[in-house]
Amino acid sequence: MAIVFTITIFCLSVYPLASISVAAYDPIYVSIDGKNCIAISEKSEYIIRVVGGPGDEPGGNFSFTAKLIGPSPAEAKVIPTNGKSSTGLFRVNVTAPPTARDMILRINVTSVSANGTLVEKVTKDFPIKVLVPVVITATVRNDGNMSVKNIPFAIYADGLKIYETTINLDPKTSKTIIFNWTDPYLKPGEHVITVMIDPGNTLVKLDTGGTSFTTTIFVGKTDYGFVNALLIGILLLSVFSIYLVYRRPKRRRMKR
């Protein structure tokens, strides 16, 4: 009797596992700061901030492209249309079209690693409403004999502050401030406009003795949209002179 043994040999091939690289960075976040309502033909600045993605690593960078959706390039512009930065901070200027309409500022962002092998992209839309403004004009004149600096100036509409700044005026000079009031919820009818200067009454006052000038305007509605309202306030400033009296401290007598 023959006994036959069959031996089967299994060859196990061992291959090294491929190394997997995991990107350790946060998602891209884009913010756009600027006015979402602007006047027709107005030029307004928008600030773009980008963080996250492979561009956050040392040596990485961010880039962007910008365009307006809605109006034609001949009607509205955004400048610049592209840029590159290691900080992720960009500024663009938008010029509105000459007619009221809605448009979108579209920002395409790219975040790239230092060696250029890792790339992430994201798009951010910022809606902008273009309106026919109510134009508020105020002329401030310094009729005093002293220069005034950093005087607070504010405009209120129906009790709400809609604009503020500071002004500097030399003696016998004036400054005209023009503000485009663009409120998408503005209703036709009467509105109370108040111009206030130096509300603390520390440096200047009006010739009437107060610090504010109030008038009522009428915003009508026609087939052409809102009618511009013009407010001209002539504020005469009387400058107070503030005298600081320095008193020399008394000498102490020496005790004997």
Throw out a few tags for this protein.
Immunoglobulin-like, 256 residues
Structure write-up:
There is one protein chain. This protein is mostly beta strands. It folds into two domains: 29-131, Immunoglobulin-like (Sandwich); 134-239, Immunoglobulins (Immunoglobulin-like). The chain has no helices and 19 strands. It has strands spanning 29-33, 37-39, 43-51, 61-69, 77-79, 82-85, 89-95, 101-112, 119-131, 134-142, 148-157, 160-169, 174-181, 189-197, 204-206, 212-219, 221-222, 225-226, 231-239. A five-stranded mixed β-sheet has the order 2-9-8-4-6, with no helix packed on it. A four-stranded antiparallel β-sheet has the order 1-3-7-5, with no helix packed on it. A hairpin with a 6-residue loop joins strand 8 (101-112) and strand 9 (119-131). It is elongated.
- The total count of helices amounts to 0
**Number of DSSP strands?**
19
Report how far apart the termini are.
140 Å
**Coarse morphology:** elongated
What characterizes the major β-sheet? 5 strands, mixed
Percent of residues in beta strands: over 45%
CATH class value of the largest domain: Mainly Beta
| Structural class assignment | mainly beta
Mean pLDDT: 78
Low-confidence stretches: 1-15, 17-21, 222-251
Radius of gyration (CA) equals 33 Å
- Can you name the CATH architecture of the largest domain? Sandwich
